[in-house]
Amino acid sequence: MTPASVCWAFSIAPEVFSTISSLLLKIQHQQEQTEEGEILNYCPAPKDIWNDKKFTGTISSAGWGDAILIVPWVLYQRYEDKRILEQCFPEMEKWLDYVQKSAAQNKENAEDDYTRYLWDTKFHFGDWMIPSFMLGEKPRGPIASAVATKDPIATAYYAYSAGLLAEIAKVLRKQDKADYFHNLYGKVKEAFGMAYVNDSGLMTADYQGVYTIALAFNLLSGEQKKKAIERLVELIKKNDYKIDTGFLSVPFIMDVLCENGYEDIAYKLLFQTACPSWLYEVKKGATTIWESWEAIKPDGTVGAFSFNHYAFGCIGDWLVRHIGGLTPIGPGYSKFKVEPHYCDRLTYAETQYESVYGEMKVKWEINEEKKMFLQVMVPANTIAVISLTNVDPDCIQDLNDYLTEMGYTNCQYFEKEGKVEFTASSGKMNIEFKIIEICRLNEQMS
Q1: What distance in Å separates the CA atoms of residue 157 and residue 144, rounded to the nearest whole number?
Q2: Reaction(s) catalyzed by this protein (predicted)?
Q3: 144-185 pLDDT, tens per residue?
Q4: What is the reported pTM?
Q5: Letter string b/e over residues 385-395, b meaning 16 or more CB atoms within 10 A of that residue's CB
Q6: What domains sit in the chain, N to C, each tagged with a CATH number?
């Protein structure tokens, strides 16, 4: 495991679950965690791991070490097995204890109490390998991107992991610990806003990735949140609709844009073919995900980078959830949401996942008459929340009659959003309805 983003992937096959669990057990047996609680940057760690101190002064980093919480949590979300949380909980606590002490180091006499909750006391990889630091004739390089972003990114992950550990403690019915870590999350969140948002409402580290992380981790609210999303979109537009996020922020940028009303911007990033972009790699013949967006330069020069490096592969997770329309709500997909999204360049998708409850499928297609054909397979002992978007008001009554006839429950119509939502239990369903609009990406990009 390197950065925590490694486990944001959509599905984890049983054999992969076993492999990741064994790596977590290595940490549990003190092989990859120090006495002080640091999680080593690599697991399994190479023999020369301690040489890292010669270069950065440390063998751990925010985002990388936080994998001790994030990976077990994602495994639990996919498989509904609490044992992985129970097994790793002591190591999670130990890591957070180390983070707290490291952040507060030498700040006993600080004039402002909030500074004890800023993790700015050591080197971190930050938003590693930001494209604008890696590309061009004289690139500044990854260490420069780390130095530029390490403090806000590390503090953001401090807050996120504190909040996540509170959720894990709730699942394990450790309410006292849940309350403690929730309170810690609040303090770190407050400190983040005080330290890294300036008077104009912009981030002190004015990069796509820093805004993305702050928004994804819910560290901003009100006017600060509004200005952050506006600035993120502005930075994307100034970069000719090209991504400029590093390892830690890239898993979140598409969701941040879509959840804040900028789905069209997300599609422009998805369909971008200039470097850096996902389709640039495809155009260059990639069959795996590269470590660097420009591992093969436009002139064909091959760089000294890994050509099988997961971090940027997180787009697959978003594609399955947002385009494929399959998103877990309950652990193990005991409850899941089906809500496909589309544009004029995406009018068909088919998603299949083998959950612990059995196979689930979502298949949809939009024809030239703007009619949506949706097929869903819901496995036994699960509940699907089906959300139909952009429904033509003229077909609402017929659609409602059909849903009632088929015995679907909790049917609701949200007129403002043009959305129909209902609940379905196990079985197969076929639904047809007309949509009223579709994102015209081709017109926007012409």
Answers
A1: 20
A2: Hydrolysis of terminal non-reducing alpha-L-rhamnose residues in alpha-L-rhamnosides
A3: 999 999 999 999 999 999 999 999 999 999 999 999 999 999
A4: 0.92
A5: bbbbbbbbeeb
A6: 4-320 (1.50.10.10), 325-445 (2.60.420.10)
